[in-house]
Design goal:
This protein has helices at residues 15-24, 54-65, 86-93, 127-131, 152-155, 164-172, 175-186, 224-235, 243-250, 281-284, 287-298, 313-317, 342-346, and strands at 2-8, 33-38, 71-74, 110-114, 122-126, 134-138, 142-144, 148-150, 193-202, 212-221, 261-264, 301-303, 323-326, 329-332, 352-354. It has 355 residues and is of the alpha/beta class. A hairpin with a 3-residue loop joins strand 7 and strand 8 (148-150).
Length: 355
């Protein structure tokens, strides 16, 4: 039987809840390579409730440190609004200040892997994800205009660097197919442990809504399907109505039947919790967001010859070797480029522009 804990918490004293989670779900971390992946949707202030709160990340890092890992990496690949601004996103959210030197831009090194050919034959995934012995995922308790809610399963979408995330959005075509796509991404490397920041949650048309909700909880589990089903119930949703949970159960990733879950703590539905439309219309019918998804797919990095010094930093650092020098200026191979925009982020002269 899967277990999900629901533990009271606040940001001033979250260590107790995090420690309780690690006690109930013991991990053999000593001598292992560990990746901690917060939810870093985009550059924002911590008080906006868009990303995993720094206090939660700090508590997890401090706990893992004491367990003597061989190595520890803290990283994520930000979403639509901040492709190519990985470090900036961590800085502005306040997450960088608590990483204690463990932050890495995991978008700078990726590996191509086979994917569901109904969507894309291959995707690039951050190498740090595939090389980690243990992955600890730190989702945020939020709604989402396309998938209704975002939690343990959706947080793994950040394993994909760059604009291939928006490409997959568009290839999926409909909210129903996108629900399937996020499960396909999730199972590329299923994390080992999940700790959800539900101290302050988000309702309304997330994942970047101004409608914040004080909840005062930390949730945790080693079963993403069970955990997401508890989040759904707290939001007033029947888990079986969420297509990504149905697919996850169908392919054996877990179960959302309450009889198969041991809930440790008090499970209560949040009264009058505001949800986006169940069909995903909040994003699928939003012309501004759809245009942005399209633009992120067609933008290509270009070097400004007036600023470029031919240092070749972008060529050396491109995770898929899509850049090469041509008459002293780096050029991009459109077919190879995954639109992670790491070249723009890493250029010391700020000579890379997107066109």
């Amino acid at each position: 039987m899967s277990k999900v804990i629901i533990h009271p918490a606040n940001y001033d004293d979250v260590n107790g809840a995090v420690g309780h989670a690690f006690k109930l779900f013991p991990l053999q971390i000593s001598g292992k390579k560990v990746l901690v992946k917060p939810n870093v949707l985009r550059s924002s202030e911590a008080e906006e409730g868009i990303v995993t709160h720094p206090a939660v990340l700090k508590a997890v890092i401090e706990k893992v440190e004491k367990m003597n890992p061989a190595s520890l990496i803290v990283g994520d690949n930000p979403g639509l609004f901040n492709y190519g601004a990985n470090e900036e996103s961590f800085e502005k959210t306040g997450l960088m200040s608590v990483t204690k030197g463990y932050y890495e831009n995991i978008g700078n090194d990726s590996v191509k892997v086979d994917f569901n050919p109904d969507f894309m034959p291959m995707v690039s995934i951050s190498r740090a994800v595939l090389e980690a012995d243990i992955i600890i995922s730190l989702p945020k308790f939020k709604t989402h205009g396309l998938t209704v809610m975002t939690g343990a399963i959706k947080n793994s979408y950040g394993f994909l660097p760059g604009a291939q995330k928006s490409r997959l959005h568009r290839v999926a075509g409909t909210p129903e197919r996108f629900h399937e796509a996020i499960v396909d991404v999730f199972q590329l490397r299923v994390p080992d442990f999940f700790i959800v920041d539900a101290v302050v949650g988000m309702e309304g048309n997330g994942p970047a809504s101004p409608d914040l909700r004080s909840i005062g909880l930390i949730l945790a589990s080693d079963d993403a399907v069970a955990l997401d089903s508890i989040i759904a119930r707290m939001m007033g949703l029947e888990p079986g109505r969420l297509k990504f949970l149905k697919k996850a159960r169908e392919i054996g990733l877990g179960d959302y039947d309450l009889d198969s879950i041991e809930v440790i703590g008090e499970l209560k539905t949040l009264p009058d919790f505001k949800l986006p439309p169940l069909g995903g219309e909040a994003i699928s019918e939003n012309e501004v967001i759809q245009e942005m998804l399209h633009s992120r797919n067609i933008l290509t990095p270009k070097a400004d010859p007036d600023l470029c010094t031919a240092c070749e930093t972008c060529v050396d650092q491109c995770p898929v070797s899509a850049l090469s020098m041509n008459e002293g200026i780096p050029e991009v191979d459109d077919e190879t480029c995954i639109r992670c925009f790491c070249c723009q982020e890493i250029c010391p002269e700020k000579a890379i522009v997107l066109r």
